Amino acid sequence: MTDVDNKVKYKSSGGVVKFKGPKRSSNLAREMVAKDVAMQATKRNFKVVDVLFRSNIGRIYFFIMKGLSQAKLIVRMLIKQKQHGHGYIRPKKERRT
Protein backbone atom coordinates (compact mmCIF):
# COMPACT_ATOMS: atom_id res chain seq x y z
CA MET A 1 0.00 0.00 0.00
CA THR A 2 1.43 3.35 -1.04
CA ASP A 3 0.26 6.92 -0.83
CA VAL A 4 -0.09 9.38 -3.70
CA ASP A 5 3.67 10.05 -3.70
CA ASN A 6 4.44 6.29 -4.02
CA LYS A 7 5.85 6.08 -0.51
CA VAL A 8 5.23 2.65 0.99
CA LYS A 9 2.86 2.86 3.95
CA TYR A 10 2.26 -0.85 4.53
CA LYS A 11 3.04 -4.14 2.82
CA SER A 12 1.84 -7.63 3.46
CA SER A 13 2.30 -11.15 2.11
CA GLY A 14 1.14 -14.69 2.72
CA GLY A 15 3.91 -15.18 5.27
CA VAL A 16 2.93 -12.07 7.21
CA VAL A 17 -0.61 -13.40 7.74
CA LYS A 18 0.82 -16.68 9.16
CA PHE A 19 0.68 -18.97 6.10
CA LYS A 20 3.72 -21.22 5.69
CA GLY A 21 5.13 -23.17 2.75
CA PRO A 22 3.00 -23.76 -0.34
CA LYS A 23 -0.12 -22.42 1.41
CA ARG A 24 1.27 -18.87 1.11
CA SER A 25 0.17 -18.71 -2.54
CA SER A 26 -3.29 -20.22 -2.01
CA ASN A 27 -6.50 -18.35 -2.72
CA LEU A 28 -7.34 -18.16 0.98
CA ALA A 29 -3.95 -16.57 1.67
CA ARG A 30 -4.57 -14.00 -1.08
CA GLU A 31 -7.92 -13.12 0.44
CA MET A 32 -6.40 -12.79 3.91
CA VAL A 33 -3.61 -10.56 2.58
CA ALA A 34 -6.20 -8.34 0.87
CA LYS A 35 -8.14 -8.13 4.15
CA ASP A 36 -4.96 -7.30 6.05
CA VAL A 37 -4.04 -4.50 3.64
CA ALA A 38 -7.64 -3.23 3.64
CA MET A 39 -7.72 -3.09 7.45
CA GLN A 40 -4.46 -1.14 7.49
CA ALA A 41 -5.89 1.20 4.84
CA THR A 42 -8.98 1.90 6.94
CA LYS A 43 -6.78 2.55 10.00
CA ARG A 44 -4.92 5.15 7.95
CA ASN A 45 -8.22 6.72 6.76
CA PHE A 46 -8.02 5.53 3.15
CA LYS A 47 -11.54 5.27 1.73
CA VAL A 48 -10.98 5.06 -2.04
CA VAL A 49 -8.20 2.91 -3.52
CA ASP A 50 -6.66 2.12 -6.90
CA VAL A 51 -5.57 -1.50 -7.27
CA LEU A 52 -2.45 -2.28 -9.34
CA PHE A 53 -1.81 -5.86 -10.44
CA ARG A 54 1.79 -6.51 -11.46
CA SER A 55 1.09 -10.00 -12.77
CA ASN A 56 -1.67 -11.82 -14.61
CA ILE A 57 -4.70 -11.66 -12.34
CA GLY A 58 -6.75 -14.55 -13.74
CA ARG A 59 -8.88 -16.19 -11.06
CA ILE A 60 -7.24 -14.46 -8.09
CA TYR A 61 -9.09 -11.22 -8.94
CA PHE A 62 -12.22 -12.50 -7.20
CA PHE A 63 -10.43 -13.34 -3.94
CA ILE A 64 -8.56 -10.05 -3.75
CA MET A 65 -11.67 -7.99 -4.47
CA LYS A 66 -13.62 -10.01 -1.90
CA GLY A 67 -11.03 -9.20 0.76
CA LEU A 68 -11.08 -5.49 -0.12
CA SER A 69 -14.87 -5.26 -0.20
CA GLN A 70 -15.24 -6.82 3.25
CA ALA A 71 -13.35 -3.84 4.65
CA LYS A 72 -15.76 -1.48 2.86
CA LEU A 73 -13.10 0.12 0.66
CA ILE A 74 -14.19 1.71 -2.60
CA VAL A 75 -12.09 0.48 -5.54
CA ARG A 76 -11.88 3.36 -7.98
CA MET A 77 -9.59 1.84 -10.59
CA LEU A 78 -8.10 -1.55 -11.47
CA ILE A 79 -4.76 -1.31 -13.26
CA LYS A 80 -3.00 -4.25 -14.90
CA GLN A 81 0.57 -3.79 -16.04
CA LYS A 82 1.39 -5.14 -19.46
CA GLN A 83 3.55 -8.24 -19.46
CA HIS A 84 6.09 -9.19 -22.07
CA GLY A 85 6.42 -12.76 -23.30
CA HIS A 86 9.55 -14.80 -23.87
CA GLY A 87 9.93 -13.51 -27.41
CA TYR A 88 9.90 -9.88 -26.35
CA ILE A 89 12.57 -7.79 -28.08
CA ARG A 90 14.00 -4.98 -26.01
CA PRO A 91 14.52 -1.57 -27.56
CA LYS A 92 18.11 -0.87 -28.59
CA LYS A 93 20.38 1.01 -26.22
CA GLU A 94 21.35 4.55 -27.08
CA ARG A 95 24.65 4.82 -28.82
CA ARG A 96 27.45 6.35 -26.75
CA THR A 97 29.39 9.07 -28.46
Write a concise keyword list for the protein shown above.
alpha+beta, two-stranded parallel ribbon, Rossmann fold, 2 helices, about 15% strand, about 100 residues
Explain what the structure shows.
With 97 residues, the protein is of the alpha+beta class. The protein has a domain of 59 residues: Rossmann fold, CATH 3.40.50.1970. Helix content is 29%, strand content 13%. α1 runs parallel beside α2. The protein is globular, with a radius of gyration of 17 Å. The relative contact order is 0.16.
- What is the CATH class name of the domain at 21-79? Alpha Beta
Strand content: 5-15%
Tally of alpha and pi helices: 2
Termini separation comes to 42 Å
> What structural category do the secondary elements indicate?
alpha+beta
- Low-pLDDT residue spans: none
**What topology, given as strand order, has the largest sheet?**
1-2
What summary fits the major beta sheet?
A: 2 strands, parallel
Order of helices and strands: HEHE
Question: Would you report the number of β strands?
Answer: 2
Task: Tell me roughly what share of residues is in helical segments.
Answer: 25-40%
**What's the pLDDT, averaged over the residues?**
81
Any idea what the CATH architecture of the domain at 21-79 is? 3-Layer(aba) Sandwich
Judging from the principal axes of the Cα atoms, what is the shape?
A: globular
CATH topology of the domain at 21-79: Rossmann fold
